[in-house]
Amino acid sequence: GIQVEQSPPDLILQEGANSTLRCNFSDSVNNLQWFHQNPWGQLINLFYIPSGTKQNGRLSATTVATERYSLLYISSSQTTDSGVYFCAVAQAGTALIFGKGTTLSVSS
Amino acid sequence: GAVVSQHPSWVICKSGTSVKIECRSLDFQATTMFWYRQFPKQSLMLMATSNEGSKATYEQGVEKDKFLINHASLTLSTLTVTSAHPEDSSFYICSARPQSGTGASYEQYFGPGTRLTVT
Fold first, then answer.
1. Of A41, A88, B60, B102, which one's alpha carbon is 20 to 30 angstroms from that of B41?
2. Is B5 helix (H, G, I), strand (E, B) or coil?
3. Residue-level pLDDT at B101
4. pLDDT average, residue stretch B100-114
């Protein structure tokens, strides 16, 4: 099956810093989504981005489908950005497969 | 739009009993729903895919007789953990994908999860 690798596994930042999270996947996909899991476990849908670039406030994401990777950018990080960020991919008609996540800790 | 609910949000049960978890798509119809399980400090693992009106497809290693899935309507899927044991304690999350149409999106929408503790 398709493999999803996220890096780095852990990231520690000072408030105000910028960061880039990476997601590599092993095969072509029709769906790629980025999530932030909050402390209560709920998955917050950040982006649906099988290709191209999107921006939402301080967050942006780029997926280069031909090279099988996606990047999530967080600018001017805040303590509320802390948590686990997951990348998940799927091929047509199948379920999302999740990477192992990046745990982000932002300190004030 | 695209809201998925789960009930209950948390449940404690005794070993040997059964627990049912409901997953509902509130504002869209979903021909396909998915069930995931997440253990502490781990990623989400797909358990099964359910299609409305047909039997669920289980991932390798998931016992279909233990985790009963029913997708009786386009807005409701249920997961029943039968004869629960402490090792079944986990965070169960459902997901739904809207019916496809023109310009189909493959985006999945997730419920808030159900935390199961078996004592």
1. B60
2. strand
3. 54
4. 79
Sort strands B10-13 and B114-118 into parallel, antiparallel or unpaired.
parallel
Per CB-CB distance under 8 Å, the chain B contacts of A88 are 44
Which of B5, B13, B23, B4 lies closest to B88 in space, CA to CA? Answer: B13
* CB contact (8 A) between residue A33 and residue B107: yes
The C-alpha atoms of residue A103 and residue B7 are separated, in whole angstroms, by: 28
Distance separating alpha carbons of residues A35 and B103, to the nearest angstrom: 23
- Interatomic CA distance for residues A32 and A50, integer angstroms: 5
> What mean pLDDT comes out for the span A59-77?
98
Nearest-angstrom CA–CA distance, A102 and A87: 9
Q: Would you give the distance in Å from CA B46 to the centre of its chain?
A: 9
Q: Given a cut of 60, is residue A92 above it in pLDDT?
A: yes
Task: Supply the pLDDT for residue B25.
Answer: 94
The span from the CA of A11 to the CA of A81, in Å, is 12
pLDDT of residue A2: 94
Decide if B92 touches A, using CB distance below 8 A.
Answer: no
Q: Which residue of B has its CA nearest to A91?
A: B106
